[in-house]
Amino acid sequence: MIALPWRDLGGRMAFSGTVSTVRAFEDNSRVREAVAEPGHGRVLLVAGGGSLRRAMLGDLLAAKAVENGWEGIVIDGVIRDSGVIAGLALGVKALGVCPRKTEKLGDGRRDVVVEIGGVAIAPGQWLCADADGVVVMDRQPGAALQP
């Protein structure tokens, strides 16, 4: 469980999927790259260092995530354009909102192990989110064990 004060900001409160990660601080260049690719029902987990100063997601990137089949986005940071994002068929959890855009410097890394709320999360793990919080596990519940 990632025990942070999550706010439900998307149009879908409950969502789950295979994790893809971004680690970036106040620069959403890697988030932009990720949502531009087919999501295939994945969840994008953004380790934003808990920054409340710059929004890592706005309405245009959220709409692109919906268009490309992402299930949800969880951000250890803030978003902007929350009114529009609340109307999209996308699960979004973040620490809050801020109208200020990020820098676009190309900083950050994708699909690396990240730590959020003291929990290490690796790409390929399974994330479940609902009104009660966010849980990450090694595999999808009910998935068969590999011999």
Main features:
three-stranded parallel sheet; alpha/beta; Glucose Oxidase, domain 1; 147 residues; 3 helices
Task: Describe what you observe in this structure.
By secondary structure, the protein is of the alpha/beta class. The protein has one domain: Glucose Oxidase, domain 1, CATH 3.50.30.40. It is 14% helix and 33% strand. The strands form 3 sheets. Strands 1, 2, 3, 5, 7, 9, 12 and 13 form an 8-stranded mixed beta sheet that branches. A 3-stranded parallel beta sheet has the order 4-6-8. The chain has a two-stranded antiparallel ribbon with strand order 10-11. Strand 10 (114-116) and strand 11 (119-121) form a beta hairpin. Helix 1 (29-35) runs parallel beside helix 2 (59-67). The longest helix has 9 residues, at 59-67. The radius of gyration is 14 Å and the shape is globular. Substrate binds at residues 58-61, 80.
